[in-house]
């Protein structure tokens, strides 16, 4: 509000049982429907379709995508904007693995899986970005639209493919160190099925890029 930036907040809720929609409705009443755009969907339909759904309602030239549970802290948004202007980047990606970035609230197993996923991806795909599985990012709207047309992955691999395809298409990527704090409410699910899906997706990307 006091930044001098013209902005809107588009909230996509896929029928979550934790009261997200009720909180968003309260925010809409406080700040007005021109600032808070609540665009719910009746059930969980996947992250990629949520991006597409959100883009339909976004009016700006740039889109910042973040988790609404405050695992991604809004305090980093001005740094994303500054970085984009500094290098005229097509994408600015938050990184937990560079500079003073970090992860808080994860056990050792989760940290090892995330680090391992990034390391394997760096070796196989050489994407030129240090954090491929995070989702706190700024995109030019037209770049995000183009990437969504190209990306076919789901789940854990989706964010990784976004960066790999961006490099493939010649888009520029900048990075901002962020602190990721695991959610206080709810549960992040990362089991054997997700790991197998990640490895399959990684090999598919390796074979097609």
Spell out the key features of this protein.
about 210 residues; glycosyltransferase; manganese; 2 domains; two-stranded parallel sheet; Dolichol-phosphate mannosyltransferase subunit 1; 4-stranded mixed β-sheet; dolichyl-phosphate beta-D-mannosyltransferase activity; magnesium; about 15% strand; alpha/beta; Spore Coat Polysaccharide Biosynthesis Protein SpsA, Chain A
How are the SSEs placed, and which strands pair?
Elements lengths: L8 E3 L8 H12 L4 E3 L8 H11 L4 E4 L11 H11 L3 E5 L6 E3 L3 H18 L11 E4 H10 L7 H11 L4 E5 L1 E3 L10 H17 L1
Helix pairs in contact: 4-7
Please tell me about this protein's structure:
By secondary structure, the protein is α/β, with parallel strands linked by helices. It folds into two domains: 60 residues, no CATH class; 140 residues, Alpha-Beta Complex (Spore Coat Polysaccharide Biosynthesis Protein SpsA, Chain A), CATH 3.90.550. It is 43% helix and 14% strand. It is built from seven helices and eight strands. Strands 3-6-4-7 form a four-stranded mixed beta sheet. Strands 1-2 form a two-stranded parallel ribbon. A two-stranded parallel ribbon has the order 5-8. Helix 4 packs parallel to helix 7. The radius of gyration is 17 Å and the shape is globular. The relative contact order is 0.16. This is Dolichol-phosphate mannosyltransferase subunit 1. Component of the dolichol-phosphate mannose (DPM) synthase complex. Its cofactor is Mn(2+); Mg(2+); Ca(2+).
């Amino acid at each position: 509000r006091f930044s001098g930036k013209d902005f809107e907040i588009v909230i996509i809720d896929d029928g979550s049982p934790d009261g997200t929609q009720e909180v968003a409705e309260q925010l809409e009443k406080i700040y007005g429907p021109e600032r808070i755009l609540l665009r719910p969907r009746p059930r969980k339909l996947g992250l990629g379709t949520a991006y597409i759904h959100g883009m339909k309602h976004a009016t700006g030239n740039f889109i910042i995508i973040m988790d609404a549970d405050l695992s991604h802290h809004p305090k980093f948004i001005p740094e994303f904007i500054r970085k984009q202007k500094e290098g005229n980047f097509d994408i600015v990606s938050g990184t937990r693995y560079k500079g003073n970035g970090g992860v808080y609230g994860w056990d050792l197993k989760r940290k090892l899986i995330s680090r391992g996923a990034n390391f394997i991806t760096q070796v196989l795909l050489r994407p030129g970005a240090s954090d491929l599985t995070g989702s706190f990012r700024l995109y030019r709207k037209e770049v995000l639209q183009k990437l969504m047309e190209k990306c076919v992955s789901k789940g854990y691999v989706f964010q990784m493919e976004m960066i790999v395809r961006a490099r493939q298409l010649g888009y520029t990527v900048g990075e901002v160190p962020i602190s990721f704090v695991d959610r206080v409410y709810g549960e992040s699910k990362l089991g054997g099925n997700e790991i197998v899906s990640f490895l399959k997706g990684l090999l598919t990307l390796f074979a097609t890029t």
